[in-house]
From TrEMBL:
The keyword Ribonucleoprotein applies. Gene3D superfamilies: 1.20.5.110. This is 60S ribosomal protein L13. One of its GO terms (molecular function) is structural constituent of ribosome. It comes from the Eukaryota. Keywords: Ribonucleoprotein, Ribosomal protein. The keyword Protein transport does not apply. One of its GO terms (cellular component) is cytosolic large ribosomal subunit. It holds the Pfam family Ribosomal_L13e. GO terms for biological process: translation. PANTHER family: 60S RIBOSOMAL PROTEIN L13 (PTHR11722), LARGE RIBOSOMAL SUBUNIT PROTEIN EL13 (PTHR11722:SF0). It comes from Ditylum brightwellii.
Amino acid sequence: MVKHNNVIPNIHCHKKYLESSRGPLKVRLNLNQASKKKTRRLARAAKAAKVAPRPLQKLRPAVRCQTQRYSAKLRLGRGFTIAEIKAAGMTPKYAATVGIVVDHRRSNRSEESLAANVARLTEYKAKLVVFPRKRLNKPKAGDASIEDIKAATQLSGTVLPLAKPAAEIVMEEVTDEMKEFKAFTTMRVARQETRVDGYRKAVENRKKD
């Protein structure tokens, strides 16, 4: 018997790991992982060959993660906003034809995110090679030159991946101004000024009346 005042062991090992005359297999096994991995790889290769010379993936914006806890992290979003597309000198209809994802539901909350994604679109436009629709030897306005078309290759992987921030620690010399600065006192004064701001404005309004 077990020692001390613990829960009495009363487990039920009634799962059937082998098929028998009593019934089918009750435990789900993942014995097809290797074959599924091969199937996905072949499907990606077939899709890449089908859409060539276009890249397999599309351009996506740089957005911040949700909630205050993860808002410092930068990741790829669903699609560019209509404001970002227009600021980059394109239309949403044209952007969808050159490998840019457009999300009409997303909106910009800051000028920084708008400027960052517009710069991302501008960089993509500078590297973009637009093939003619019908004849490669007769490019129209907006199409790439014949030399660029011949030198173009299919891009594999993420289009314009996000640059990872440097993990190096930047060392800085401590100046006399930094030593004299009182962070706690500055914060307390600012907090107090914010608290009495409304009262001061009310007093000033009474004096004017």
